[in-house]
């Protein structure tokens, strides 16, 4: 490990870490915004015999999307979107697709696992469907959704590095440059910085979970 190189290039490492986070954050937030309603629709469809094939189709489609090779998707998106191949938007949208594909099933199963007694009690109290969703359904499914988002976060942080191969800067730059120069320190710093960023994001999600679901902390969950 060449510590002199690390201290000399600390500002570069920090800039790449910020760029890495800047690509991951909108993808993770967008995943939550899109996956919750899609997963809820899949859950609702599964409750009706008539619409169960729709649920199966949603789950199947998201599974297929997650199976697309990341580099192929990064290259294909500029053709579909009409953007420059060097645009960071391609990476963000690709990460968003993978995040939604990974999280939709988790959200649907989280809603499936809700205690029917709680929802029936809300119905008996005259809750509208919208009020029941925000006051009962979503809070009950919250722990499952949070667990899924933590997986999405780790996956997203990891996949951001692939964007380096199409010229979008991130901590992946350290990996590719290190391999090209046969410089293990640069490779190791890239790996450790990526892991540290993933841990930081995970801790942030845990903190958000404690803030929006304080009853989990009181219950020791």
How does the overall form come out from the CA principal axes? elongated
Q: Architecture, according to CATH?
A: Orthogonal Bundle
Radius of gyration: 20 Å
Strands, total number = 0
What is the typical, i.e. mean, pLDDT? 91
Overview of the structural elements:
- The chain is mainly alpha-helical and about 220 residues long.
- The chain has one domain (about 5-220): MetI-like (MetI-like fold, Orthogonal Bundle).
- It has helices at about 5-10, 10-45, 50-65, 70-80, 90-110, 115-125, 130-160, 170-180, 185-210, 215-220.
- Helix 2 (about 10-45) packs across helix 5.
- It is elongated, with a radius of gyration of 20 Å.
- The mean pLDDT is about 90.
- Keywords: Membrane, Transmembrane, Transmembrane helix, Transport.
- It is a multi-pass membrane protein.
- It holds the Pfam family BPD_transp_1.
What is the gist of this entry?
With 221 residues, the protein is mostly helical.
Note the main attributes of this structure.
221 residues, mainly alpha, MetI-like fold, elongated, ABC transporter permease, MetI-like, transmembrane helix, MetI-like_sf, transport
What is the fold's blueprint, element by element?
Elements: H1 3-8, H2 10-46, H3 52-66, H4 70-81, H5 88-112, H6 116-124, H7 129-160, H8 172-181, H9 184-212, H10 214-218
Helix pairs in contact: 2-3, 2-5, 2-7, 3-5, 4-5, 5-7, 6-7, 7-9, 8-9
